[in-house]
Every structure is written in structure tokens, then in C-alpha cells.
Design goal:
Elements: H1 4-10, H2 23-35, E1 37-40, H3 46-60, E2 76-80, H4 82-85, H5 96-105, E3 111-120, E4 146-152, E5 164-165, E6 184-185, E7 193-197, E8 202-203, E9 213-221, H6 231-234, H7 245-250, H8 268-278, H9 349-352, H10 362-374, H11 376-390, H12 399-419, H13 423-457, H14 496-525, H15 532-558, H16 571-586, H17 596-600
Antiparallel strand pairs: 1-7, 2-3, 3-9, 4-7, 4-9, 5-6, 5-8
Family: Belongs to the unc-50 family.
Pfam family, one: UNC-50
GO cellular component, one term: Golgi membrane
């Protein structure tokens, strides 16, 4: 294999300790450095595996709940917070070979980030590609912010949903996205443990068999990274005495040097035990040494806390403060919001970031523009990663809009200097190109799409009947009360921001055709008298622009997994092709006779 230093340099891991002398540990680390993962065989005995199967079946029950959204898996059963529900999985947190890898790739004091079981049932589709520490938003390649293990409780095969890993993807930059052709199924016998970095792209496979595939996963993270699962609330502190001390420390009940994580000046484990005792006392009997949060969620200093009187009708033994929730856009959000209507609607993040140029990703915008010309599917495939990390399909980054507006301004300057060289004409042309043609058209089309696409292509839409889908819809109806700027966070809702994203992206190829290529070819296309060649070139140019706009619009909505039969959005291609053919037969030139150019300059 290549020199280890090569991988260390790519991952910025020059600070890591030297490789261990132990040949097994050394081989494990080298495999992870090269591939991003390693398979660890025979870490569990057959008795251990059978015990885990029985425990998973016990916790799953007869009628388990499946995933709530596409990422969890509609035909996948997940059980979270294993440390609170079973002692059978304690051993899975303490494999010697896993801890040896952790000591190499993570800093001392690393913590458990999440624990869960994953049962992929027959018929489940492949999961979205992701990497586990994508939520840190740090540029790649970089050191991992966490690691994870996938424990095969059943045999892992390519047919039953084995985890798909993308070898070497931990070395990729932030732009590259994996494809199914690059993924490798992690095949192994029950009891095999797959260790992988948080920067390695992977996903759950599809289960094409008639039996479920059971597994458990333990995730670890750097001590300075917030855990995915809040262990302090996920695990009852009264159970800490049942859990091995090493795991308790990895849950966060331990001090990180020099004194990070203390509780009232104490070791956090002592603080947890004291809190268990205090929870059995009335709230106003707790000593004033602890800062407390009152019923509206405002922290107070110790001097303000003595005494604290319980709220009326509050349980005198255990009380949990409640914070006011943010009013929803579709109605009230509690007693305090009644009658306020939509007065608390906040501006979308897209508008908040309009003037925050340092936060804009213009490099990503350039990549999108390039991909829209050579591989437009990539633009919308990247949305899967975005929805996983941001919980919204819409990218609230105006960099694409700014960049295309800048190009339109340059184009307006070129058209004005060539055909109407006056300041007033160039200024009016700039306003027309940017605010009417681009932003105005995009807002108009995205508004129409926002209100009708879900009704037509959603599970309860008119197009759903073509596939016999159930009429029990998860697609929300769009009403005036909800407004255009719905609250993000529902991955199966069509967001107005996403509709605007699609319209913006679809406009870019149209811009190149009608604003750039037409400008360069206009002397040829407007030759008088027109002939078949000029008619063919001009009509084909407009056909290509509209076909590109239609196709990219289709790709945008086809990328949403909860929409069905979006191929119907391609029907305008047939209509446009027929009109193009008829125009050639009739000798009708869309530019000269159809006044295509005059249409671009209407009002100027």
C-alpha cells in the first residue's frame, strides 16, 4: 500500500501518534487510513450474537414503529438510547480493537455520541448517502469529528441491506458526492464489526430478501463536539450505577482536563448522584448554589433564587421547566400565541443572508452552474446531503442568485453598448434583465409550483392515482394561512425556498442560450432575407433554451422522494418539439417574424 504519510497529509493528521507495534492494531489503523473503514471479525461469539438478537426482538415488539422520514427509512425500525434500555449492549461499547482505533483517531476524553439498533425490513430502499459528522460543516478533507461502528447482528449480504461504504471517500473534498457505482457492500458474518470514520460516505443498503437485517451502531465523537444523542437526558441518571464506569465516563460523566464539564464545582458523576437525590425534594428546597431556570426559561443568578416557589399545580417532587415555543406559521402554538395570527412570522434565512457576503458560498454556486451544463442531476443529488444536515431542501444561500444577477448585468451592458449605447437604455435594460426576467419570472413560476406541485404529484395528488398510491397523504395542503414562507424542518413538505431554488437553477441555461449565445449569433440569425439555415438555427436555439428549462425544472422536483410521477413535467418537451417542427416546415423564424429579440427588450 502507499506510504501512510500520504494519507496522514491528506487528512491533516500529521499530529497523530506513531503506529502501534502490535500487527493487528497496526493493520486495522492502516486500513482505516487508506479506505476510511475496516472490518473487524469475530468480536462477538455466537452466544453474544444470539443474545443481541433476542434483545432486539424484545425491544422491537410485535408492531414496531418504522422510520418517520426517508432518512430513518420507511421500512426500517430503529431503537435509540440503548444504554437506558438494555445492559446487553454494554459490551458493544468496549471492544478492545475498537477502543484502540479510537485512541488513535480521537482525542483523549472522547465521548459516546449515539447508540441505536437498525432493523432494515424487506422491501426497504437504499438510504441517502451521508457521512456521520456532516453536521459540523467544516471543510474537507479534514480530521474526523467522530467515528462509528456497525455491529452485524445478522449476516450482512449485498441483498439484505448491508451497509454500503465508499472506499477512500474520507479523503474527498467538500464538493464531491458519491454514487451507487462507487459504493461497496460491507459483507460479513453475524458478529462482524465495521469501524468507519465520521468523514466516510456510506448508507444503508436495500433489503431485497424476505427477512429483516438487524444491526446495532455505536457512535463516538471528539470531546469538543456536541454528541448527536443527549446522553444526559437519554439515560436515566438512576441507572448510572448499573452501567460500567468506562461507559459512564464516555457518556460525558467525567472531567476533561483541566476541569471541563464540572457541575457546581464537582465531578459530573457526583453532581448526577446529588441531582437524583434532589429531584425527590420540593423545588424550593434545593440549595441556592445551583443556577436554576424558571418557568419562562430565563437563567437567574444564585442571589435571585432563594427561595424558589413551585408554580401552581406543579408536581412538588419533579418539575421540568417549559420554554415558550415559537409560534407556527399555520396557527397558534400555545395559549400565549392565541389571536396573534402570523405576527410572529420571521423572515426566511435567504433574505437574512442577502448582505452577508462572507457567508456566501460562491465556489459552490460556480460548481452548480458548471454542473447544470454538463451533469445537471448532480446539482439536485447534492440536496440529499443538504436535507440530511440542515433538515431543509432549500439552500438559504443567495450566492447563486447574486452571481447570475452579476452575469445578467454584464450581458445587459453588452447588449446596450451594441444596440442602444446610452446610459438610460443600459440602466433600464439592467433592471429588466435582473428584476423582471430573472427574479420576477423565478418568483412567479416558483409561486405557481409551490401551490400546485404538491397537489398534483404528492401522495394525495392527481398524479398519484397513476401508481395506485394510498390516499392517506403526508403532503400538506397549501393555504393562505400558511403563507409562502413555511417553517423549515419537515423533509416531506415542499418549501417555497426550494421552488425558488429550482426556478433559479433552471434559468441559468436559458440565460446562456438567449442572453449570451443569441447575442453572439444575432447578426447571423437576423440576416435579411431569412433563409432555412437562419430559421433553423434561431428556432433551435429557442427550443434548446426552453427544453433545458423544462428538463432542469423536472430534475428539481423529481429529486424530492415524496413526489410521484413527476415525469409528467416533461410533457412540455413534446409540445415544444412539435411547435419547433411545425415552425420549420412553415418557414416561420421565431427571432425575426416571431419578434423573439423584441420580446427580450420589451419596455426598453
Amino acid at each position: 500500500m502507499p506510504e501512510i504519510d500520504f494519507f496522514l497529509n491528506l487528512l491533516n493528521l500529521e499530529h497523530l501518534p506513531p503506529l502501534p507495534e502490535d500487527p493487528v492494531k497496526r493493520a486495522d489503523i492502516e486500513s482505516v487510513l487508506q479506505n476510511g473503514y475496516v472490518a473487524l471479525d469475530n468480536l462477538l461469539t455466537e452466544e453474544d450474537v444470539q443474545s443481541l438478537r433476542e434483545e432486539v426482538d424484545r425491544m422491537t415488539g410485535e408492531n414496531p414503529r418504522t422510520g418517520r422520514h426517508m432518512f430513518e427509512g420507511r421500512d426500517t425500525v430503529r431503537i435509540y438510547s440503548l444504554l437506558n434500555k438494555s445492559r446487553k449492549f454494554d459490551k458493544c461499547c468496549l471492544f478492545d480493537r475498537v477502543l484502540a482505533l479510537n485512541e488513535y483517531f480521537l482525542m483523549k476524553g472522547y465521548t459516546i455520541s449515539a447508540t441505536s439498533t437498525i432493523q432494515i425490513n424487506p422491501g426497504e430502499k437504499p438510504q441517502l448517502f451521508h457521512h456521520d459528522d456532516g453536521y459540523t460543516y467544516l471543510p474537507r478533507p479534514r480530521p474526523p469529528m467522530g467515528v462509528a461502528i456497525m455491529i452485524a447482528i445478522d449476516d450482512f449480504t449485498a441483498e439484505n441491506g448491508a451497509t454500503l461504504m465508499v472506499p477512500g471517500s474520507h479523503l474527498w473534498d467538500s464538493k464531491r458526492r458519491p454514487t451507487m457505482e462507487e459504493a461497496v457492500p460491507m459483507v460479513g458474518k453475524a458478529g462482524t464489526v465495521f469501524y468507519f470514520l465520521g468523514t466516510t460516505w456510506h448508507c444503508g443498503g436495500s433489503n431485497m430478501t424476505n427477512k429483516p437485517r438487524r444491526a446495532a451502531t455505536i457512535q463516538y465523537c471528539q470531546p469538543y463536539i456536541r454528541a448527536v444523542e443527549n446522553q444526559f437526558l437519554a439515560v436515566d441518571p438512576r441507572r448510572l450505577s448499573e452501567i460500567p464506569d468506562d461507559i459512564v465516563k464516555m457518556m460525558g460523566y467525567g472531567l476533561q482536563k483541566p476541569f471541563i464539564g464540572y457541575v457546581d464545582g464537582l465531578d459530573p458523576l457526583k453532581g448526577a448522584r446529588r441531582m437524583v437525590d434532589w429531584l425527590q425534594q420540593p423545588l424550593d428546597m434545593q440549595p441556592p448554589a445551583f443556577a436554576t431556570i424558571d418557568i419562562i426559561g430565563i437563567a437567574h443568578s444564585p442571589a435571585q433564587l432563594h427561595p424558589i416557589r413551585p408554580a401552581v399545580n406543579m408536581n412538588p417532587h419533579i418539575s421540568v421547566p417549559r420554554q415558550h415555543s415559537t409560534p407556527s406559521f399555520g396557527g397558534s402554538s400555545g395559549a400565549g400565541s392565541a389571536g396573534r395570527g402570523n405576527s410572529s412570522i420571521k423572515m426566511p434565512r435567504f433574505f437574512k443572508r442577502l448582505f452577508k457576503f462572507p457567508q456566501m458560498d460562491f465556489e459552490m454556486a460556480i460548481w452548480e452552474m458548471t454542473s447544470l451544463l454538463i451533469a445537471p442531476k448532480k446539482v439536485f443529488k447534492s440536496m440529499y446531503y443538504h436535507v440530511k444536515t440542515k433538515n431543509t431542501w432549500h439552500r438559504p444561500d443567495p450566492s447563486f442568485t447574486y452571481l447570475l444577477s452579476f452575469f445578467l448585468l454584464l450581458t445587459a451592458l453588452a447588449w446596450g453598448l451594441a444596440y442602444s449605447p446610452s446610459f438610460g437604455s443600459i440602466f433600464r435594460l439592467s433592471i429588466l434583465f435582473v428584476f423582471v426576467h430573472f427574479i420576477g419570472t423565478s418568483l412567479f413560476i416558483s409561486t405557481i409550483a409551490y401551490f400546485i406541485v404538491g397537489r398534483i404529484f404528492g401522495p394525495n395528488g392527481a398524479a398519484a392515482s397513476l401508481t395506485g398510491l394510498s390516499r392517506g397523504s403526508r403532503m400538506p395542503r397549501r393555504g393562505a394561512a400558511q403563507g409562502l414562507f413555511a417553517q423549515p424542518g419537515e423533509k416531506e413538505h415542499i418549501e417555497f425556498g426550494y421552488c425558488f431554488d429550482v426556478s433559479n437553477r433552471a434559468f441559468f441555461p436559458l440565460y446562456l442560450h438567449l442572453y449570451v449565445i443569441q447575442f453572439l449569433l444575432l447578426p447571423l440569425l437576423t440576416r435579411n432575407p431569412p433563409n432555412f439555415l437562419t430559421t433553423f438555427l434561431g428556432n433551435t436555439l429557442y427550443l434548446s433554451a426552453l427544453l433545458y428549462y423544462t428538463y432542469i425544472t423536472f430534475l428539481g422536483y423529481n429529486a424530492l422522494p415524496f413526489l410521484h410521477n413527476t415525469e409528467l413535467l416533461l410533457l412540455p418537451i413534446l409540445v415544444l418539439s412539435i411547435l419547433w417542427l411545425v415552425s420549420l416546415i412553415a418557414g416561420w423564424n421565431v427571432i425575426t417574424q416571431g419578434r423573439g429579440v423584441e420580446g427580450l427588450f420589451w419596455g426598453v
